[in-house]
Amino acid sequence: MKRVIFALLIIILILILIYFWLGKEMDAVLKNEADGTNEYVVILGAKVKPGGIPSLSLKNRLDVALDYLRKHPSVKAIVTGGQGADEDRTEASVMAAYLIEHGIDQNRIMLEDQSTSTYENLLFAKELLPEDVTNITIISNDFHLKRAVILANKVGLQADVLAAPTPKSVNTKSRIRERLALIKAYVKGQ
Predict the structure, then answer these.
(1) Which residues contact 33 (CB under 8 A, 6 or more apart)?
(2) Boundaries of each DUF218 domain copy (predicted)?
(3) What class does CATH assign to 2-188?
(4) Would you list the domain boundaries of the chain?
């Protein structure tokens, strides 16, 4: 019985260490903050509410993108995200409308509106890039950027990042779920 308890304690200790290590990995990527040198920014999609209203997570991403695009007028944006079963329009179309409504020239915005995952966001966004472009900036919520950079590398892109704040109401849940998704990205690459 003592061996079983000891083994369980070791397993719990390992899981706790993995949990904290993944948290450090998620935070470490934030040091690679974008400085305007990349010609394209990819804004990753997120939930859209009925009527084409961005969720708070998506709005935060878009507000960070607005600030960045205003500071760097030569940078072009690729907005990403298809239409989920519970959405009445594509995430990309809502994002484009938001940016345009807030003063970004529509000629600076490209839509990737077929994806259903972060991996597809980046894979399909890559198809919109000129062939010689392999460096991009990714905008997403802070917890999501480590996995986004891993997946960008998987599709042949190098990325710096801009972090949007994660709403407090979903922060804990998002960070726990993202740790599981990070393990999957490390193991499967998606």
Answers:
(1) 160, 161, 162, 163
(2) 40-177
(3) alpha beta
(4) 2-188
